[in-house]
Amino acid sequence: MSSRMWLGGIDGVIPGGITAKDFSIVAKVDSTTAKKMLTEMTQNQIGRMDGETIEFTDGDKIKAALYAVLKGATIDDAAAHLSWRDFEGLAAQILEEKNFSIVRNHIMTNPRMEIDIIGIKLGISLLIDCKHWQKHSPSALDAAVQKQIERTKHYVAKTNGAVAAPVIVTLYQDRVSFINKVPIVPIFQLSSFIDEFYGNLEDIKTIRKE
Predict the structure, then answer these.
(1) I need a surface site. Which of 89, 189, 197, 200 has the fewest CB within 10 A?
(2) What are 154-188's pLDDT values in tens digits?
(3) 84-208, which class in CATH?
């Protein structure tokens, strides 16, 4: 199956249940190819077969996009099939699988600020800003980090006893990096980053109420 077919398959990954017939229509492939694609997806932890339908969750669409890249598609082409909600959905799903309590799209006032995802575990809040960007400049990343630090300070000031760490999650990074001790984490490395997070706290910027 060509990378073009896998790109079409991203569009067929719709949260909830979808039949192979409906998937073939959305993905613009024949029914035999649709069944083969769905079987391969489920074998790679993208969705779950349930009788005649396949069940997809919020994070499965970006998993399908990353799988399309493995099949030869460019990241730019795969990203064109994704929305910021798809990106946030996978990040939130990963945190939930790690037993974090999750808050999405948290709004603060005076001044108004929004945090994409808050994950809370063991007394520490991870404040995640999801950047579903095309390729970005170092200065744009610096600015995003500074804004996330300001959001984290605002959150801590308004939350009793909060200790929080700002984190940027991106699609285009190829490895974890740091700016001012704030981690910049590629989405496909978020799970391993979280596994190692508490052991690396001394190297990560955390903010607490002064």
Answers:
(1) 200
(2) 999 988 878 999 999 987 777 889 999 999 998 88
(3) alpha beta
**76, containing H or E segment:** helix 75-79
Q: What is the pLDDT of residues 114-136, one digit of tens each?
A: 999 999 999 999 999 998 765 66
Cα-trace Rg, the chain: 19
Dist. CA 119–CA 81, nearest whole Å: 26
Q: SS3 for 163? A: strand
> pTM to 2 decimals?
0.76
d(CA 5, CA 68): 9
24 within 8 A of 31, measured Cβ to Cβ: yes
Structure-block tokens of residue 88:
């946030």
Tell me how far apart the terminal alpha carbons of the chain are, to the nearest angstrom.
57
